[in-house]
Specification:
Elements: E1 5-6, E2 11-14, E3 20-31, E4 37-46, H1 48-71, E5 73-79, E6 84-87, H2 89-95, H3 105-111, H4 117-128, E7 133-141, E8 144-156, E9 162-171, H5 173-185, E10 196-200, E11 205-208, H6 210-218, H7 234-240, E12 247-255, E13 258-267, E14 272-279, H8 281-302, H9 311-328, E15 332-337, E16 342-345, H10 347-353, H11 365-368, H12 373-386, E17 390-398, E18 406-417, E19 423-432, H13 434-480, H14 485-511, E20 520-523, H15 524-538, E21 543-549, E22 555-558, H16 560-577, E23 583-594, E24 608-617, H17 624-629, H18 647-657, E25 661-667, E26 671-679, E27 701-705, H19 709-721, E28 725-729, H20 732-741, E29 748-752, H21 760-770, E30 776-780, H22 788-793, E31 798-801, H23 806-817
Helix pairs in contact: 1-9, 8-9, 13-14, 13-19, 14-18, 15-16, 16-18, 20-21
């Protein structure tokens, strides 16, 4: 019998050239015939390749652990035979358990949220029996609630006996928060970038937003087939619902090669199911890639002893897989050393920085992102000094690949430590959230505009009635004092002031979109030229006005007053910024062909042909804080009495209503530039210009009805001066009675809309029932319940908005009487 004895585990031989060679050694005695030891046989094996493979495998495991940390995905393994449960480092961190703590199922269950424990325990026991285990639930860590997703793969022997299992745990707290945000945005379907549906109790689709239709269109499917966003078991969900309590169910659906996370919210108050979908294709692919990579690593670790000669190749393959995942990740990733030089970076983040990934390595952070360097270096130094991560840091700046677009990123900074716990570098994760922040800003702006709209609608009617009386009697007084120029001049000033008040009400209503103007194809150059000439007369001589036009096609769909309001408000704002020192006001009109993915104005502009109107001044400029609020209603930096704070808000409202975009750039002490982008309209239609031909009159009989005595008096006198026979009344019931008694007395009825007892629209219907061919003019200070279109449907020939001038009233009367309305 020969006995071999191992001599040492870490023997190192030194070659003649001085190279260290790790060896594995063993010895066996040589016996003589008497059984005595006569010598020893020594055996040495070169294990350089094995040691190298083991080193690569160890380094590979460290890289995997760091990838799990960045991706917030942990893993665990359970050995039933040995009753051993092991966690990865990320699992310890995620559950808030100190590394080294003895792990048991009870330890895990104690961390699960009390409301979720019974469900988790039931599904775990089902998993031990062979059922699939893929669940989402809450955990409580240091007093804070998190959401995690757990997926397990149980292992059984040929006899069906449970051997153990392997699983992953993913922190999905941010995803859950995003789903809640998506639900909130769903109440604003026009702003929501994700598919939103509403289904009745029978399963029929009652509503499907534009985002859902866009997905179907992109996949070359019928935009009306929104049913593809419904879970396959929707009928069962609706059938089993008790119809008394709210219920939320999560599902995943696939549309061709795209995966969506679907939340079905059952709302008993409305008896509907609301479906919110969010695309998770990239995340699903990343999860699958990580699971596949983990499974392969586990398999290779199990076979390591039998495949030592193959371990180096396995380690290299694994490194390539990690590298692939690193570059496939849907977030930007990079690693910095303690001197803040790039060690590695994935393609996504490199693209944001505007240079290839290979050109980052060795470069300083400040050299690559100079505009964000101060903030980034401050955070990095904090991580290096404290050894603690800094997460959820927002950074805003101009993208280096598209320098004209400001973007916002959410960043996380995590320390990289050696075996002694010293910080040797920083792992950085970057996620672009520009669109999310833009949607939040749009939502806030929408809420402000809604509030102003409510205010505008409330005051417009009564204020316009008062202005109607002021303007009407002023016009009458001007006719009576034609031979007294001093009085006439004073009355003209009263009229001008009242007209400015009327324009202010129109501005407020236009801003809040409570009123609209008739829009036709409009060439901008003549109108801008005319408006610039008006500006030369009203702007101080210390300000030089320059106008240049290079647009070859300048036709848009708009009303002239809207374009004049835009230019006049922007120019007025610019002149006020230059009133102390003077300066130059540059106005330009140019073409812009906005291609898909073009960086000209950002993601909110649809591709197409546009006209760009630019108003630039050399005034005082604005601070970043003022620029953020410059389009807010009633916001002004001027002293009381020098401005309403509505001018730029009105511009913003008009531009948005014209499907355009407005941006501002400014620097203190240098000046400001406002750029307006308006879509072109392709048409050669010429709009007819109607020129006034005097104030027409007549001798017909007119019934004039208004509950305001002053307006009744103005209407009676004005129409009588034009030659008409007028019956004026303040009570709509008496007016209906007088008309019904003898309809032939009246050739026309002029009535206010907002009146007690019988409103104008109802009075018009009753008058038409008495005499079908009676011409009717309906007037209103402002109303959300009646428009020119709806008035026409009930027989009204003319629809006038107060205040009305004598010219406007006379023209409308003749059109109605002559059948031209």
């Amino acid at each position: 019998m020969t006995i071999s004895v191992g001599l040492a585990n870490h023997t190192i031989l030194i070659s003649k050239g001085g190279t260290e060679i790790p060896i594995d050694d063993s010895a066996a005695p040589i016996k003589d015939e008497d059984g005595k030891t006569a010598g020893v046989v020594l055996i040495f094996r070169d294990i350089t390749e094995r040691k190298h493979a083991e080193h690569l495998l160890h380094r590979n495991r460290i890289d995997l652990e760091r990838s799990q940390e960045v991706g917030q995905i942990g893993s665990w393994r359970l050995d039933i035979k040995r009753d051993v449960l092991t966690w990865s480092d990320e699992n310890y961190r995620m559950f808030g358990v100190p590394k080294g703590t003895p792990l048991t199922y009870e330890v895990f269950l104690a961390i699960v949220h009390p409301d979720d424990r019974r469900s988790v325990d039931t599904q775990w026991n089902a998993g031990l029996a062979g059922e699939p285990y893929d669940i989402e639930h809450r955990i409580v860590v240091n007093g804070q609630t998190k959401w995690v997703r757990e997926k397990a793969y149980m292992e059984f022997d040929d006899a069906g006996e449970l051997l153990g299992g392997f699983g992953i745990t993913q922190d999905i707290t941010e995803r859950k928060q995003a789903e809640e945000n998506t639900k909130h945005l769903a109440s604003f379907p026009s702003l929501n970038p994700n598919p939103v549906l509403e289904v009745d109790l029978s399963g029929a689709i009652a509503f499907c937003n534009a985002a859902a239709q866009k997905v179907l269109e992109d996949e070359e499917m019928d935009k009306g087939e929104c049913k593809f966003f419904c879970p396959t078991d929707l009928a069962a969900i609706l059938r089993d619902w008790d119809k008394t309590s709210e219920l939320t169910v999560g599902r995943e659906i696939a549309i061709k090669n795209r995966v969506f996370g679907v939340t079905v919210q059952l709302v008993p108050r409305f008896g509907v199911a609301r479906i919110y979908a969010q695309e998770i294709t990239k995340r699903k692919r990343a999860e699958e890639a990580l699971l596949r990579a983990r499974d392969e690593l586990e398999l290779r670790v199990q076979k390591r002893t039998a495949q030592l000669r193959e371990s180096e190749k396995m380690a290299l393959d694994r490194m390539r897989e990690i590298e692939t995942y690193y570059h496939m990740a849907p977030i930007g990733l990079c690693i910095l050393d303690t001197d803040l030089h790039y060690l590695r970076i994935n393609e996504l983040l490199a693209g944001w920085n505007g240079m290839p990934a290979s050109e980052h390595v060795g470069r300083a952070l400040r050299e690559v992102i100079p505009r964000l360097a101060d903030q980034a270096e401050r955070i990095a130094r904090q991580v290096i000094e404290t050894g603690k991560p800094v997460t959820n840091v927002e950074m805003t700046g101009e993208s280096l690949d598209q320098s004209s677009i400001r973007k916002t990123w959410l960043t996380g900074w995590h320390p990289r430590k050696d075996s002694a716990g010293s910080v040797v570098g920083i792992s950085v994760a970057v996620q672009e959230i520009t669109q999310q922040r833009d949607l939040e800003n749009q939502l806030r702006q929408s809420q402000k505009m809604e509030a102003i709209g409510t205010l505008a609608g409330g005051i417009a009617h009564d204020f316009n009635n008062m202005l109607a009386a002021i303007l009407g009697f002023t016009e009458m007084a001007l006719e009576d004092v034609a031979d007294r120029p001093d009085v006439k001049r004073n009355l003209q000033n009263v009229s001008k002031a009242a007209m400015r008040a009327r324009d202010l009400v129109k501005q407020i209503l236009t801003f809040s979109r409570k009123t609209t103007h008739e829009r036709n194809p409009l060439p901008l150059l003549p109108l801008i030229n005319e408006t610039v000439q008006l500006l030369r007369a009203s702007i101080p001589a210390t300000i030089e006005i320059k106008f240049t036009a290079t647009a070859t096609s300048d036709r848009i769909l708009a009303a002239p007053i809207e374009i004049q309001q835009i230019l006049m408000n922007l120019a007025t704002n610019a002149s006020l910024a230059m009133q102390e020192k003077g300066g130059t006001l540059d106005v330009s009109l140019t073409d812009i062909n906005f291609e898909p993915d073009s960086p000209v104005f950002g993601a909110n502009v649809s591709p197409g042909e546009y006209v760009q109107l630019v108003v630039k001044d050399t005034g005082t400029g604005m601070s970043p804080g003022v620029m953020k609020r410059v389009f807010e209603p009633f916001f002004t930096t001027r002293e009381a009495g020098r401005g309403t704070g509505m001018g730029l808000s009105v511009v913003y409202g008009i531009v948005k209503d014209l499907q355009g975009t407005i941006t501002v750039e400014s620097e203190l002490g240098v000046g400001s530039t406002f750029s307006v982008l308006l879509p072109k309209v392709k048409t050669d239609v010429q709009t007819e210009v109607v020129r006034p031909v005097g104030i027409p009159g007549g001798n017909e009989g007119i019934l004039f009805v208004d509950d305001e005595e002053m307006l009744v008096e103005w209407g009676r006198v004005t129409l009588e001066r034009l030659g008409y026979k007028v019956t004026a009344m303040t009570d709509s019931r008496e007016a209906l009675k007088a008309f019904s008694n003898d309809p032939s007395l009246f050739d026309l009825v002029i009535t206010d809309h907002a009146m007690p007892q019988i409103a104008g629209a109802q009075l018009a219907k009753k008058l038409v029932n008495v005499r079908e061919d009676i011409p009717i003019i309906l007037c209103t200070g402002h109303s959300d319940t009646i428009s020119s279109e709806s008035a026409g449907e009930i027989g009204v020939r003319e629809f006038l908005t107060k205040p009305v001038s004598k010219q406007e009233l006379a023209d409308a009367v003749r059109r109605a009487l002559d059948g031209k309305g």
